[in-house]
Amino acid sequence: MAYGQAPFSFKCLNNHFSGSDGFVEAKNISDIKSNPRAKEVQVPGAHLPGVDPVPAWKGNALLGQVSGVRGIGDLLYVFHRGSRIWDSRAFVGNRIRDISPIPEPTVVTLNATTGELVSQWGANLFVMPHGLTVDAAGCLWITDCGLHQVFKYTQESKLLLSVGTRLQSGNSNFHFCKPTSVAVSNDGSFFVADGYCNSRVVHFDAEGNYISEWQSGDIKSFIVPHSILLHECRKRVYVADRENRRIMEYHINGSLISILDLSQYGEVYAISGFHGGEISALAWPRALKGTPLLVRYELTTDELSRSIPYAHLLFEVDTPHDVFINGIVDGNTISDIFVTETRAVIPSHLHKFTYSGDRNSYERVDMGVRTSGGRRRRSPILHKTAIDSPSRAFRGPPNFRPIKRIG
């Protein structure tokens, strides 16, 4: 099965995917394709579908910088920083300046359809929230860059496991340094992307015992391994090497298989999959102050680097951090896409895009989720956009307001 993001209800038997919830039944991985539209193949100057305005959500959660999002069915789990802000002053070296726990609830459950608040917890537990993963049993895996720890919780907030040494950074079997993301196997073992100041992936068993670790395996080291996914059917681990603008593909034993260069799209903040036989990357041309993109690759080849990309502009998202794709409508269409922001100045936002039925575009749903400031942002006016040159492809909308990006 494919984990590291959400529990999917399908089984993998000799590359045979089957099950309900809209997943395609296929005899081979190559039979599973999603939106194979040649006109969306992305090379510089190719067509980039835009998004259209749709009615706002009626959410009522109070959110700070939103660092992680995952979902199960109609429930959406959101990890945010409350009143804590990650900016250039948040850390002194690798040590967080303010070690006091965030007083607000930082784990929020929303109705994925309506945006209504279902529950929230996590007050006085975390100091710098970062990654969020849901495993096959529905447990929540959380990384905290300030505590330098990884946690496993039930959905009801019961702590089941913690790994790492509280408030102590390091590079050992018992220490992390700002760990970013977790991918969890069906047997409970897990991989940790570690992190902002360590350049490694660490493998643990289900009880949190160290198994192994690996570096990038390339002449270039990881520069912020920011997101990680596990695909057990293919026995592959995928790592978003953020600042190197690439996705690294590994065998589960840590041997490097291929490198997917996304430098034309920007820094790779998050990866999501594997609905409909795809892996998707959230990329942002940060240095060019450009518009973030969702870049999708079909897992139809032996190596990810040989896959054909499709891309969609994500207007009105200016400081992206994480992405979650919530199922597929049928064998050809993605259902909902959730994108988080971590603006250096609150408010931050949680965006929802939903497939419009027009194969050249996605609709954007303004979540209507209130921020810690208590205000609800109005849904902006967006337009379908066909991009016909690289310079236009990386230009933000007229009201784009760049903000310095830290964590």
How would you characterize the overall build of this protein?
- The protein is mainly beta and 407 residues long.
- The protein contains 1 helix and 30 strands.
- The protein has one helix at residues 390-393, and strands at 2-3, 10-13, 16-19, 51-54, 66-72, 75-80, 91-92, 95-96, 107-111, 117-121, 129-134, 140-144, 149-153, 159-163, 179-184, 190-194, 200-204, 210-214, 225-231, 236-241, 246-251, 256-261, 267-273, 278-284, 293-298, 309-313, 320-328, 334-341, 350-355, 362-366.
- The strands form 8 sheets. The protein has a 5-stranded antiparallel beta sheet, with no helix packed on it.
- A hairpin with a 5-residue loop joins strand 15 and strand 16 (190-194).
The low-pLDDT segments are: 1-11, 13-55, 357-361, 366-406
Integer-rounded radius of gyration: 19 Å
Strand order of the largest sheet: 1-19-20-21-22
Shape designation: globular
Mean pLDDT: 75
Largest sheet, strands/sense/barrel: 5 strands, antiparallel
| Share in β-strands | 35-45%
User: Which structural class fits the helix and strand makeup?
Assistant: mainly beta
Helical fraction equals under 10%
Q: Tell me the number of helical segments per DSSP (H or I, 4 or more residues long).
A: 1
Care to count the β-strands? 30
Terminal CA distance reads: 30 Å
